[in-house]
## 1
Amino acid sequence: MARRNEPDAVPFTLVAFLGPVPVGCVSVCRDDRDADFDAEGPWLSGMFVLGSARDLGVGRALVRAAEERAAAMGHRELWLHTAEAHRFYERCGWRVARVRSALGRDAVMCRELAAPGSG
Ligand SMILES: CC(C)(COP(=O)(O)OP(=O)(O)OC[C@H]1O[C@@H](n2cnc3c(N)ncnc32)[C@H](O)[C@@H]1OP(=O)(O)O)[C@@H](O)C(=O)NCCC(=O)NCCS
């Protein structure tokens, strides 16, 4: 975990707390890429919220915080692949770059990031 957590660069991991209790996490990394989108990145991965803390906005807050942190580092896009949660990410403002296939390939999604200070 420490090796995968740069203070001001990718990779980084964010942990969400409700009071003193850690309830969710998300990472931004470079090694979760999809072969069809090899030149793209960085990649959002490891998104998870404890069952007891779901539907409270923690997931959205983690995605938004990861987007803001990546944008502050100068990144203009984030990418991810997901087996089942593409609707959650669409509601967070992401677009589908490749739909999930019946052959078991995950959906690939992209989020364009606003430059810091651009509103
Ligand atoms: C997906 C996940 C991170 C969402 O976290 P959360 O804290 O519950 O999210 P929020 O409270 O911010 O948002 C909840 C909304 O997302 C929706 N949602 C949650 N999981 C979803 C899914 N798999 N597909 C579609 N929508 C989903 C909820 O129905 C809810 O919708 P609403 O706001 O219209 O009521 C969480 O359900 C989770 O950890 N799931 C298991 C791991 C997982 O699927 N990770 C993503 C892998 S890419």
Note: Strands lie at 12-18, 21-29, 43-49, 77-82, 95-98, 107-112.
## 2
Amino acid sequence: MPVLETPCLILCPFREEDIDLLAELMANTGFMRFSLGVFTREQTRAFVDKIIGWERRGLPSQFALIHRSDNRLIGYCGFSHQQVDGTEEIEIGYRLDPDYWSRGLATEGAQAVRDHAFRDLKLPRVISLIHPDNLRSRRVAEKNGMKIEKKTVFRGFPTLVFAISRKQRLAEDGAG
Ligand SMILES: CC(C)(COP(=O)(O)OP(=O)(O)OC[C@H]1O[C@@H](n2cnc3c(N)ncnc32)[C@H](O)[C@@H]1OP(=O)(O)O)[C@@H](O)C(=O)NCCC(=O)NCCS
């Protein structure tokens, strides 16, 4: 995985050494909103192992988000592999330390990941799976150029499938 850079963030591959810092974040109820709940250290380890496993297999994966001005790990943003209504999809997902919310950082990260998907990885499309009540995340997806494609049930929860295709993105502004 390459390192992506934005004005406020560095997006880099996760390393085993990140487990302790990420475990602190994943024990935070704000960070884990709209999920099954907070993670133990063991659950965080399994999550990091999964992400590193994708990378080793050359698959798109999650990036650690490093906040440039204080050099802190503040969350993650990147790719997950999901099966939605029987179809394999690549999802852009994100979680941030609540201390850093509402500064445009999730949007900045998600846009860098979307551009990487289309420009470098040449993915045909990416989605984001979002609970209808998660207004902040919906807004990030909208600012990422995504549109609601359908409503479904994902892992037992009502879920909006936001999507953008490479073609749509190219038509919008010639990126990719
Ligand atoms: C969702 C999340 C990543 C957003 O991070 P963020 O850095 O605060 O996002 P941004 O600042 O880039 O954008 C947030 C947008 O939501 C808007 N917003 C904030 N609070 C809101 C609210 N209560 N209702 C509606 N919109 C809201 C902001 O105004 C901003 O939009 P704008 O730029 O048009 O003003 C962060 O809140 C988070 O980690 N949440 C918990 C985990 C999560 O839900 N992840 C997504 C799972 S699908």
Note: Strands lie at 4-5, 9-13, 62-67, 72-84, 87-96, 125-130, 147-154, 157-165.
